[in-house]
Amino acid sequence: MFASAAVAAALLCCCFSLHPAFGEECASRQEVQGSLKQVLKFLSAHEASYLQNLRNLKKKINQLQSSAAKQTAKAMNSTCAKLDAPANGRKLGRSHGLGHEVHFVCDRGFELVGPESRLCQESLTWSGQQPVCQDVNECASSPCLNGGTCVDEVNQFSCACARGWAGATCQSPVPTFFVTRTNASSVMAAAATLPAATTGPSVRPSRCTIVQGTTHCTCEPGYTISGRESNTCVDIDECEVFHNGPAGRLCLHTCVNTPGGYRCSCPAGYDVTRDGRSCKDIDECATRQNDCTKDQMCINTYGGFQCVQVECPKIPHATYVKTSPMRCERNPCPVDNKSCSQTPNSFSYHYLSVVSNLSAPRVMFRVSALRPVGDTLRFALLGGRLARRHFTVQRSDRLTGQLMLVSPVQGPVTLEADVEMSELEKRAQLGRYITKVTMFVSQYDF
Questions:
Q1: pLDDT tens digit sequence for 182-214
Q2: Distance from C-alpha of 37 to C-alpha of 45, rounded to nearest angstrom
Q3: How far is 204 from 231, CA to CA, in rounded Å?
Q4: How far apart are CA 28 and CA 6, in angstroms?
Q5: What predicted TM-score, i.e. pTM, was given to this entire model?
Q6: DSSP string, 169-188
Q7: 388-404 pLDDT tens trace
Q8: Bond preceding residue 361 cis, omega within 30 of 0
Q9: Which of 227, 161, 205, 213 is nearest to 184 (CA)?
Q10: For residues 194 and 205, is the Cβ–Cβ distance under 8 A?
Q11: Measured between alpha carbons, how far is 305 from 139 in angstroms, rounded to an integer?
Q12: Are 425 and 326 members of one domain?
Protein backbone atom coordinates (compact mmCIF):
# COMPACT_ATOMS: atom_id res chain seq x y z
CA MET A 1 0.00 0.00 0.00
CA PHE A 2 2.84 2.40 0.83
CA ALA A 3 4.61 1.59 -2.45
CA SER A 4 1.52 2.21 -4.50
CA ALA A 5 0.95 5.55 -2.75
CA ALA A 6 4.53 6.61 -3.49
CA VAL A 7 4.18 5.69 -7.14
CA ALA A 8 0.95 7.65 -7.38
CA ALA A 9 2.60 10.68 -5.82
CA ALA A 10 5.57 10.36 -8.17
CA LEU A 11 3.34 10.15 -11.22
CA LEU A 12 1.37 13.18 -10.11
CA CYS A 13 4.56 15.15 -9.66
CA CYS A 14 5.76 14.15 -13.10
CA CYS A 15 2.53 15.35 -14.58
CA PHE A 16 2.54 18.56 -12.59
CA SER A 17 6.16 19.27 -13.56
CA LEU A 18 4.84 20.35 -16.90
CA HIS A 19 3.50 23.37 -15.10
CA PRO A 20 6.20 25.67 -13.58
CA ALA A 21 3.89 26.76 -10.86
CA PHE A 22 4.41 23.51 -9.05
CA GLY A 23 8.12 23.97 -8.56
CA GLU A 24 10.83 21.33 -8.47
CA GLU A 25 9.27 18.90 -5.92
CA CYS A 26 8.46 16.08 -8.37
CA ALA A 27 10.56 12.90 -8.26
CA SER A 28 13.05 12.09 -10.97
CA ARG A 29 12.35 9.54 -13.71
CA GLN A 30 14.64 6.99 -12.05
CA GLU A 31 12.77 7.26 -8.78
CA VAL A 32 9.49 6.71 -10.59
CA GLN A 33 10.85 3.60 -12.30
CA GLY A 34 12.04 2.27 -8.95
CA SER A 35 8.64 2.82 -7.41
CA LEU A 36 6.98 1.04 -10.29
CA LYS A 37 9.26 -1.95 -9.80
CA GLN A 38 8.32 -2.07 -6.13
CA VAL A 39 4.63 -1.98 -7.04
CA LEU A 40 5.10 -4.82 -9.52
CA LYS A 41 6.81 -6.91 -6.86
CA PHE A 42 4.00 -6.14 -4.41
CA LEU A 43 1.33 -7.13 -6.93
CA SER A 44 3.20 -10.30 -7.85
CA ALA A 45 3.40 -11.32 -4.21
CA HIS A 46 -0.31 -10.72 -3.71
CA GLU A 47 -1.10 -12.60 -6.90
CA ALA A 48 0.97 -15.59 -5.76
CA SER A 49 -0.73 -15.59 -2.35
CA TYR A 50 -4.15 -15.29 -3.93
CA LEU A 51 -3.47 -18.18 -6.33
CA GLN A 52 -2.19 -20.31 -3.44
CA ASN A 53 -5.35 -19.63 -1.47
CA LEU A 54 -7.44 -20.57 -4.49
CA ARG A 55 -5.51 -23.82 -4.88
CA ASN A 56 -5.99 -24.64 -1.18
CA LEU A 57 -9.70 -23.86 -1.41
CA LYS A 58 -10.08 -26.01 -4.53
CA LYS A 59 -8.23 -28.84 -2.81
CA LYS A 60 -10.58 -28.69 0.21
CA ILE A 61 -13.64 -28.61 -2.04
CA ASN A 62 -12.36 -31.69 -3.89
CA GLN A 63 -11.77 -33.44 -0.58
CA LEU A 64 -15.32 -32.63 0.57
CA GLN A 65 -16.77 -33.87 -2.72
CA SER A 66 -14.79 -37.09 -2.46
CA SER A 67 -15.90 -37.63 1.14
CA ALA A 68 -19.54 -36.96 0.25
CA ALA A 69 -19.32 -39.41 -2.67
CA LYS A 70 -17.86 -42.08 -0.38
CA GLN A 71 -20.59 -41.48 2.20
CA THR A 72 -23.25 -41.73 -0.52
CA ALA A 73 -21.72 -44.91 -1.87
CA LYS A 74 -21.50 -46.32 1.65
CA ALA A 75 -25.14 -45.44 2.32
CA MET A 76 -26.20 -47.05 -0.96
CA ASN A 77 -24.19 -50.20 -0.27
CA SER A 78 -25.09 -50.38 3.44
CA THR A 79 -27.72 -53.06 3.85
CA CYS A 80 -28.58 -55.45 6.62
CA ALA A 81 -28.67 -59.18 6.10
CA LYS A 82 -31.75 -60.54 4.35
CA LEU A 83 -34.62 -61.47 6.68
CA ASP A 84 -36.89 -64.41 5.95
CA ALA A 85 -40.59 -64.51 6.72
CA PRO A 86 -41.46 -66.61 9.77
CA ALA A 87 -43.03 -70.00 9.18
CA ASN A 88 -46.83 -69.63 8.88
CA GLY A 89 -46.43 -65.86 8.42
CA ARG A 90 -45.42 -63.10 6.04
CA LYS A 91 -42.82 -60.35 5.90
CA LEU A 92 -43.91 -56.88 4.70
CA GLY A 93 -41.18 -54.69 3.24
CA ARG A 94 -38.50 -55.48 0.69
CA SER A 95 -35.83 -52.88 1.44
CA HIS A 96 -33.00 -53.98 3.72
CA GLY A 97 -31.20 -50.63 3.57
CA LEU A 98 -30.01 -48.57 6.51
CA GLY A 99 -32.90 -46.97 8.39
CA HIS A 100 -35.61 -49.09 6.76
CA GLU A 101 -38.13 -51.28 8.57
CA VAL A 102 -39.72 -54.62 7.83
CA HIS A 103 -42.99 -55.80 9.38
CA PHE A 104 -44.27 -59.27 10.22
CA VAL A 105 -47.80 -60.71 10.28
CA CYS A 106 -48.96 -64.27 10.97
CA ASP A 107 -51.44 -66.39 9.07
CA ARG A 108 -54.90 -67.00 10.47
CA GLY A 109 -54.76 -69.30 13.48
CA PHE A 110 -51.25 -68.23 14.53
CA GLU A 111 -50.08 -65.46 16.86
CA LEU A 112 -46.89 -63.44 16.59
CA VAL A 113 -44.32 -64.00 19.33
CA GLY A 114 -41.68 -61.27 19.17
CA PRO A 115 -41.47 -57.77 17.66
CA GLU A 116 -43.92 -56.74 14.95
CA SER A 117 -41.25 -54.60 13.23
CA ARG A 118 -37.45 -54.67 12.92
CA LEU A 119 -35.20 -51.74 11.93
CA CYS A 120 -31.92 -51.84 9.97
CA GLN A 121 -29.56 -50.02 12.36
CA GLU A 122 -26.34 -48.09 11.72
CA SER A 123 -24.36 -51.16 12.78
CA LEU A 124 -26.03 -52.95 9.83
CA THR A 125 -27.80 -55.30 12.23
CA TRP A 126 -31.52 -55.70 12.74
CA SER A 127 -33.13 -54.46 15.92
CA GLY A 128 -34.84 -57.00 18.16
CA GLN A 129 -35.10 -60.74 17.67
CA GLN A 130 -36.59 -62.69 14.78
CA PRO A 131 -40.28 -63.29 15.64
CA VAL A 132 -42.06 -66.60 15.21
CA CYS A 133 -45.67 -67.47 14.43
CA GLN A 134 -47.00 -69.78 17.10
CA ASP A 135 -50.09 -71.90 16.65
CA VAL A 136 -52.95 -70.65 18.78
CA ASN A 137 -54.04 -73.46 21.10
CA GLU A 138 -57.81 -73.23 20.94
CA CYS A 139 -58.06 -76.10 23.44
CA ALA A 140 -56.27 -74.14 26.18
CA SER A 141 -59.58 -72.91 27.61
CA SER A 142 -61.07 -76.47 27.73
CA PRO A 143 -64.09 -75.59 25.55
CA CYS A 144 -65.48 -79.14 25.33
CA LEU A 145 -68.11 -79.89 27.98
CA ASN A 146 -69.51 -83.03 29.59
CA GLY A 147 -66.42 -85.18 29.19
CA GLY A 148 -65.74 -84.23 25.56
CA THR A 149 -62.21 -84.38 24.17
CA CYS A 150 -60.84 -81.24 22.47
CA VAL A 151 -58.87 -81.57 19.22
CA ASP A 152 -56.78 -78.49 18.39
CA GLU A 153 -56.85 -77.44 14.74
CA VAL A 154 -55.57 -74.46 12.77
CA ASN A 155 -57.73 -71.47 13.80
CA GLN A 156 -60.38 -73.73 15.29
CA PHE A 157 -61.07 -76.77 17.46
CA SER A 158 -63.40 -79.72 17.38
CA CYS A 159 -64.88 -81.78 20.19
CA ALA A 160 -65.15 -85.56 20.29
CA CYS A 161 -68.20 -85.89 22.51
CA ALA A 162 -68.86 -88.60 25.06
CA ARG A 163 -71.80 -90.92 24.49
CA GLY A 164 -75.12 -89.22 25.01
CA TRP A 165 -73.88 -85.71 24.19
CA ALA A 166 -73.71 -83.68 21.00
CA GLY A 167 -73.10 -80.13 19.81
CA ALA A 168 -70.11 -77.99 18.89
CA THR A 169 -68.94 -78.10 22.52
CA CYS A 170 -70.82 -81.27 23.60
CA GLN A 171 -73.40 -79.07 25.25
CA SER A 172 -76.54 -80.85 23.98
CA PRO A 173 -77.83 -84.18 25.38
CA VAL A 174 -78.93 -86.74 22.79
CA PRO A 175 -82.61 -87.58 23.56
CA THR A 176 -83.77 -91.20 23.97
CA PHE A 177 -87.45 -91.87 23.58
CA PHE A 178 -89.37 -95.03 24.44
CA VAL A 179 -92.83 -96.06 25.63
CA THR A 180 -94.04 -98.97 27.73
CA ARG A 181 -97.41 -100.61 27.21
CA THR A 182 -98.95 -103.55 29.08
CA ASN A 183 -101.56 -104.42 26.48
CA ALA A 184 -99.21 -106.13 24.08
CA SER A 185 -101.89 -107.59 21.82
CA SER A 186 -103.41 -104.20 20.93
CA VAL A 187 -100.03 -102.66 20.22
CA MET A 188 -98.87 -105.53 18.05
CA ALA A 189 -102.18 -105.55 16.20
CA ALA A 190 -101.98 -101.82 15.54
CA ALA A 191 -98.43 -102.13 14.29
CA ALA A 192 -99.42 -104.92 11.97
CA THR A 193 -102.28 -102.89 10.50
CA LEU A 194 -100.39 -99.57 10.17
CA PRO A 195 -101.47 -98.06 6.85
CA ALA A 196 -98.71 -97.54 4.29
CA ALA A 197 -99.79 -93.92 3.84
CA THR A 198 -98.72 -93.09 7.37
CA THR A 199 -95.15 -94.14 6.70
CA GLY A 200 -92.58 -91.86 5.05
CA PRO A 201 -89.45 -89.79 5.78
CA SER A 202 -91.07 -88.11 8.80
CA VAL A 203 -93.04 -91.12 10.07
CA ARG A 204 -91.68 -94.52 10.98
CA PRO A 205 -93.24 -97.55 12.68
CA SER A 206 -92.06 -98.19 16.20
CA ARG A 207 -90.09 -101.23 17.24
CA CYS A 208 -91.77 -103.16 20.00
CA THR A 209 -90.56 -106.05 22.13
CA ILE A 210 -92.41 -108.07 24.72
CA VAL A 211 -90.64 -108.77 28.00
CA GLN A 212 -92.59 -110.75 30.62
CA GLY A 213 -95.92 -109.63 29.22
CA THR A 214 -94.93 -105.97 28.95
CA THR A 215 -94.38 -104.31 25.57
CA HIS A 216 -91.59 -101.82 25.13
CA CYS A 217 -91.77 -99.66 21.99
CA THR A 218 -88.82 -97.60 20.80
CA CYS A 219 -88.00 -95.50 17.79
CA GLU A 220 -85.02 -95.06 15.52
CA PRO A 221 -82.58 -92.30 16.47
CA GLY A 222 -84.07 -88.97 15.49
CA TYR A 223 -87.68 -90.10 15.98
CA THR A 224 -90.03 -90.21 18.94
CA ILE A 225 -93.28 -92.01 19.80
CA SER A 226 -96.30 -90.12 18.55
CA GLY A 227 -98.40 -88.63 21.31
CA ARG A 228 -101.56 -90.30 19.94
CA GLU A 229 -100.32 -93.68 18.74
CA SER A 230 -97.61 -95.65 20.45
CA ASN A 231 -96.96 -97.62 17.31
CA THR A 232 -96.02 -94.55 15.30
CA CYS A 233 -92.70 -92.72 15.42
CA VAL A 234 -92.50 -89.14 14.16
CA ASP A 235 -89.43 -87.12 13.27
CA ILE A 236 -87.87 -84.97 15.99
CA ASP A 237 -87.20 -81.39 14.90
CA GLU A 238 -83.80 -81.07 16.57
CA CYS A 239 -83.46 -77.51 15.33
CA GLU A 240 -86.56 -76.50 17.27
CA VAL A 241 -85.89 -78.60 20.35
CA PHE A 242 -82.36 -77.30 20.84
CA HIS A 243 -82.77 -73.83 19.35
CA ASN A 244 -82.70 -71.70 22.50
CA GLY A 245 -82.88 -74.31 25.22
CA PRO A 246 -80.64 -74.41 28.29
CA ALA A 247 -78.38 -76.93 26.56
CA GLY A 248 -77.57 -74.48 23.76
CA ARG A 249 -77.90 -74.61 20.01
CA LEU A 250 -76.96 -77.50 17.78
CA CYS A 251 -75.56 -75.26 15.04
CA LEU A 252 -73.39 -72.19 15.26
CA HIS A 253 -75.27 -70.51 12.39
CA THR A 254 -78.28 -72.17 10.70
CA CYS A 255 -79.89 -75.51 11.56
CA VAL A 256 -81.79 -77.41 8.85
CA ASN A 257 -84.04 -80.24 10.03
CA THR A 258 -83.88 -83.51 8.08
CA PRO A 259 -85.79 -86.79 8.53
CA GLY A 260 -84.23 -88.48 11.50
CA GLY A 261 -81.60 -85.80 12.00
CA TYR A 262 -80.42 -82.32 11.05
CA ARG A 263 -77.60 -80.53 9.30
CA CYS A 264 -75.88 -77.22 9.84
CA SER A 265 -75.14 -74.60 7.22
CA CYS A 266 -72.84 -71.57 7.24
CA PRO A 267 -73.03 -68.18 5.52
CA ALA A 268 -71.03 -67.31 2.41
CA GLY A 269 -67.33 -67.07 3.16
CA TYR A 270 -67.42 -69.89 5.72
CA ASP A 271 -67.12 -73.68 5.61
CA VAL A 272 -68.73 -76.17 7.99
CA THR A 273 -66.14 -77.68 10.34
CA ARG A 274 -65.46 -81.39 10.68
CA ASP A 275 -67.87 -81.71 13.60
CA GLY A 276 -70.64 -80.57 11.23
CA ARG A 277 -71.87 -77.85 13.59
CA SER A 278 -69.44 -74.94 13.63
CA CYS A 279 -68.26 -72.56 10.92
CA LYS A 280 -64.72 -71.69 9.94
CA ASP A 281 -63.66 -68.72 7.87
CA ILE A 282 -62.39 -69.30 4.32
CA ASP A 283 -59.06 -67.55 3.76
CA GLU A 284 -59.66 -66.18 0.27
CA CYS A 285 -56.20 -64.59 0.24
CA ALA A 286 -54.34 -67.84 0.93
CA THR A 287 -56.50 -69.91 -1.42
CA ARG A 288 -56.45 -67.24 -4.18
CA GLN A 289 -60.22 -66.93 -4.16
CA ASN A 290 -60.02 -63.17 -4.60
CA ASP A 291 -59.91 -60.61 -7.37
CA CYS A 292 -57.19 -58.32 -5.98
CA THR A 293 -54.77 -56.96 -8.57
CA LYS A 294 -51.00 -57.33 -8.35
CA ASP A 295 -50.75 -53.74 -7.11
CA GLN A 296 -53.16 -54.45 -4.24
CA MET A 297 -52.75 -56.37 -1.01
CA CYS A 298 -55.33 -58.97 -0.07
CA ILE A 299 -56.52 -58.74 3.55
CA ASN A 300 -58.52 -61.74 4.70
CA THR A 301 -61.56 -60.90 6.81
CA TYR A 302 -64.10 -63.06 8.61
CA GLY A 303 -66.47 -64.14 5.86
CA GLY A 304 -64.67 -62.34 3.04
CA PHE A 305 -61.66 -60.29 2.02
CA GLN A 306 -60.59 -56.73 1.24
CA CYS A 307 -58.27 -55.47 -1.49
CA VAL A 308 -56.20 -52.54 -0.21
CA GLN A 309 -53.55 -50.37 -1.81
CA VAL A 310 -51.54 -47.99 0.33
CA GLU A 311 -51.12 -44.53 -1.20
CA CYS A 312 -48.86 -41.97 0.44
CA PRO A 313 -50.78 -38.93 1.71
CA LYS A 314 -50.67 -35.57 -0.04
CA ILE A 315 -50.03 -32.87 2.55
CA PRO A 316 -49.20 -29.20 1.89
CA HIS A 317 -45.55 -28.21 2.41
CA ALA A 318 -44.30 -31.85 2.43
CA THR A 319 -43.89 -34.84 0.14
CA TYR A 320 -43.85 -38.54 1.05
CA VAL A 321 -42.33 -41.64 -0.52
CA LYS A 322 -43.30 -45.29 0.08
CA THR A 323 -40.45 -47.14 1.78
CA SER A 324 -42.36 -50.42 2.23
CA PRO A 325 -45.80 -51.73 1.24
CA MET A 326 -47.23 -50.45 4.55
CA ARG A 327 -45.14 -47.34 5.27
CA CYS A 328 -44.60 -43.84 3.83
CA GLU A 329 -41.81 -41.52 4.98
CA ARG A 330 -41.41 -37.78 4.52
CA ASN A 331 -38.74 -36.46 2.19
CA PRO A 332 -36.13 -34.16 3.83
CA CYS A 333 -37.40 -30.65 4.54
CA PRO A 334 -35.55 -27.45 3.58
CA VAL A 335 -33.74 -25.93 6.57
CA ASP A 336 -35.87 -22.78 6.65
CA ASN A 337 -39.25 -24.50 6.03
CA LYS A 338 -40.98 -24.70 9.42
CA SER A 339 -44.29 -25.78 7.88
CA CYS A 340 -42.64 -28.88 6.44
CA SER A 341 -40.87 -29.79 9.68
CA GLN A 342 -44.21 -29.73 11.54
CA THR A 343 -45.79 -32.39 9.29
CA PRO A 344 -45.66 -36.09 10.29
CA ASN A 345 -42.34 -37.84 9.71
CA SER A 346 -44.02 -41.07 8.63
CA PHE A 347 -47.31 -42.88 8.10
CA SER A 348 -47.69 -46.60 8.87
CA TYR A 349 -50.73 -48.62 7.78
CA HIS A 350 -52.12 -51.68 9.57
CA TYR A 351 -55.26 -53.75 8.94
CA LEU A 352 -57.15 -55.85 11.51
CA SER A 353 -59.95 -58.38 10.99
CA VAL A 354 -62.26 -59.03 13.94
CA VAL A 355 -65.63 -60.66 14.58
CA SER A 356 -68.77 -58.76 15.46
CA ASN A 357 -69.49 -57.82 19.09
CA LEU A 358 -65.95 -58.46 20.23
CA SER A 359 -65.79 -58.14 24.01
CA ALA A 360 -64.25 -54.96 25.39
CA PRO A 361 -62.12 -53.43 26.74
CA ARG A 362 -59.20 -55.08 24.98
CA VAL A 363 -55.89 -54.08 23.38
CA MET A 364 -56.12 -54.00 19.58
CA PHE A 365 -52.71 -52.57 18.59
CA ARG A 366 -49.46 -51.32 20.13
CA VAL A 367 -47.15 -48.54 18.94
CA SER A 368 -43.57 -48.34 20.22
CA ALA A 369 -40.52 -46.15 19.66
CA LEU A 370 -37.51 -48.20 18.57
CA ARG A 371 -34.89 -45.47 19.01
CA PRO A 372 -36.20 -42.54 21.06
CA VAL A 373 -34.29 -39.30 20.53
CA GLY A 374 -36.09 -36.84 22.79
CA ASP A 375 -36.85 -36.96 26.48
CA THR A 376 -40.63 -37.49 26.16
CA LEU A 377 -43.03 -39.57 24.06
CA ARG A 378 -46.66 -38.55 23.77
CA PHE A 379 -49.45 -40.74 22.35
CA ALA A 380 -52.81 -39.45 21.13
CA LEU A 381 -55.88 -40.66 19.24
CA LEU A 382 -56.77 -38.73 16.11
CA GLY A 383 -59.99 -38.96 14.14
CA GLY A 384 -63.65 -38.16 14.37
CA ARG A 385 -66.49 -38.99 16.73
CA LEU A 386 -66.91 -42.58 15.51
CA ALA A 387 -63.28 -43.44 16.30
CA ARG A 388 -63.46 -41.84 19.75
CA ARG A 389 -66.70 -43.68 20.44
CA HIS A 390 -65.05 -47.09 20.15
CA PHE A 391 -61.35 -46.44 20.79
CA THR A 392 -58.96 -44.79 23.19
CA VAL A 393 -55.18 -44.64 23.45
CA GLN A 394 -53.35 -45.52 26.66
CA ARG A 395 -49.69 -45.72 27.59
CA SER A 396 -48.51 -49.21 28.59
CA ASP A 397 -44.92 -48.20 29.40
CA ARG A 398 -42.50 -45.34 28.76
CA LEU A 399 -41.95 -46.23 25.09
CA THR A 400 -45.25 -47.90 24.15
CA GLY A 401 -48.80 -46.74 23.57
CA GLN A 402 -51.73 -49.06 22.91
CA LEU A 403 -54.97 -48.67 20.99
CA MET A 404 -57.85 -49.91 23.16
CA LEU A 405 -61.29 -51.05 22.02
CA VAL A 406 -63.63 -49.65 24.68
CA SER A 407 -67.03 -50.81 23.41
CA PRO A 408 -68.26 -53.78 21.34
CA VAL A 409 -68.89 -53.15 17.65
CA GLN A 410 -71.79 -54.64 15.71
CA GLY A 411 -70.75 -55.44 12.14
CA PRO A 412 -70.52 -55.34 9.31
CA VAL A 413 -68.59 -52.07 9.52
CA THR A 414 -65.13 -50.67 8.87
CA LEU A 415 -63.56 -48.49 11.56
CA GLU A 416 -60.46 -46.34 11.26
CA ALA A 417 -58.30 -44.95 14.04
CA ASP A 418 -55.12 -42.85 13.77
CA VAL A 419 -52.59 -43.16 16.59
CA GLU A 420 -50.13 -40.25 16.82
CA MET A 421 -46.77 -40.66 18.54
CA SER A 422 -44.94 -37.35 19.16
CA GLU A 423 -41.32 -37.11 20.21
CA LEU A 424 -40.44 -34.10 22.38
CA GLU A 425 -37.28 -32.56 23.79
CA LYS A 426 -37.93 -30.04 26.57
CA ARG A 427 -41.49 -29.73 25.27
CA ALA A 428 -40.24 -28.86 21.78
CA GLN A 429 -41.49 -31.20 19.07
CA LEU A 430 -38.82 -33.28 17.35
CA GLY A 431 -41.03 -35.54 15.26
CA ARG A 432 -44.51 -36.94 14.68
CA TYR A 433 -45.36 -40.48 13.58
CA ILE A 434 -48.86 -41.54 12.51
CA THR A 435 -50.10 -45.15 12.62
CA LYS A 436 -53.34 -45.62 10.68
CA VAL A 437 -55.25 -48.68 11.91
CA THR A 438 -58.17 -49.99 9.85
CA MET A 439 -60.44 -52.58 11.52
CA PHE A 440 -62.76 -54.73 9.42
CA VAL A 441 -65.65 -55.98 11.61
CA SER A 442 -67.54 -58.98 10.24
CA GLN A 443 -71.31 -59.45 10.21
CA TYR A 444 -71.20 -62.43 12.56
CA ASP A 445 -69.69 -63.13 15.95
CA PHE A 446 -67.68 -66.11 14.66
A1: 443 434 333 333 344 455 678 888 888 888 778
A2: 12
A3: 9
A4: 13
A5: 0.56
A6: TS-EEPP--EEEES-HHHHH
A7: 899 999 988 888 999 99
A8: yes
A9: 213
A10: yes
A11: 27
A12: yes
Q: Which of 30, 54, 75 is the last residue of a domain?
A: 75
- Residue 286 in any domain: the answer is no
Domain containing 179 equals 145-281
Helix (H, G, I), strand (E, B) or coil at 416: strand
Task: From 135, 89, 86, select the one nearest 109 (Cα to Cα).
Answer: 135
Residue percentage of the chain with pLDDT more than 90: 27
Is the pLDDT score of 218 beyond 80? yes
* Gap between the Cα atoms of 53 and 350, Å rounded: 58
Rounded distance between C-alpha atoms, residue 167 and residue 146, angstroms: 11
Mapped onto helix, strand or coil, the DSSP state of residue 124 is: coil
23 pLDDT more than 70: no
- Domain check: are 433 and 308 in the same one? yes
The verdict on 31 and 177 lying in the same domain is: no
Residue that is last in its domain, among 281, 316, 339:
281
Strand partners, 440: 353, 414
Structural domain total, the chain: 4
